[in-house]
Amino acid sequence: LLFLWSITVSIFGIGGLLGSSGSRYLTVKYGKKKCLLCNNVLMIVAASIMGCSKIAHSFEMILIGRFMCGISAGLCVPLHHQYVGEISPKKLRGFANSTSSFFWSLGKAIGQISGQRELLGSQSLWPMLMAACGFPALVQLVMLPFFPESPPYLLMHKEDQEGCKKAIRQLWGEGHHQAEIDDIMKEKATMKNTKILSVLELVKEPAFRWQLYMIVILTATIQLCGINAV
Q1: Domain of 12?
Q2: What share of the chain is helix, strand, coil (3-state, %, to 5)?
Q3: Does the reported pTM lie above 0.70?
Q4: Burial class of 196 by CB neighbour count within 10 A (0 to 12, 13 to 18, 19+)
Q5: Tens digit of pLDDT for each residue in 125-170?
Q6: Does 58 map to a domain?
Q7: Which residue in 167, 118, 133, 156 sits closest to 48, CA to CA?
Q8: Could you give the count of Cα atoms lying within 13 Å of 133 in the half-sphere of its Cβ?
């Protein structure tokens, strides 16, 4: 039982590692909006599997659902930051990116509170708690089709200048947005002259060794403080 409990908890992180590792390839190939839409479907399926685990008398369904949730969360973290940052006007970009951290923390707090025995953590209601992660995914799945694809993706990867202008007008309103388009073109030119390192190349690169150590230490200690420690 202890082993199964440990695997159930930790398999989320394994899924998260796999999801985040594949996020760059998927976003370049399919675009951020499509990836987010498919990611929501994955989360809804995972929530449904976990929600039905008690009826099916199957702990394996919880393991599978947790693993799928981890993959979805691993994909969502970089996707969400990139998409929100790229569709926001420049003056609101910092604020828009900071809201994601706020809502991550708020979601964790709501999950902890909802999991109390007096609420959804009871013997009869815990499947609803496990399936609750599908509700935000369902909301985004319904609303996201009304938003355009990321303008930088359309211009830099699809080379669709008209589509980029249309997306910018839809997001930021009518007006002269040539300066923003020029900024995207400059970024594209910079990226052509910049080598993108793989994870293995990053680990082996001596110039980034101390930065890598610092990130690893910070990320590890985050797991030992605050709501995670509780």
Answers
A1: 1-147
A2: 80, 0, 20
A3: yes
A4: exposed
A5: 899 999 998 999 999 999 999 988 888 888 777 777 788 888 888 8
A6: yes
A7: 133
A8: 28
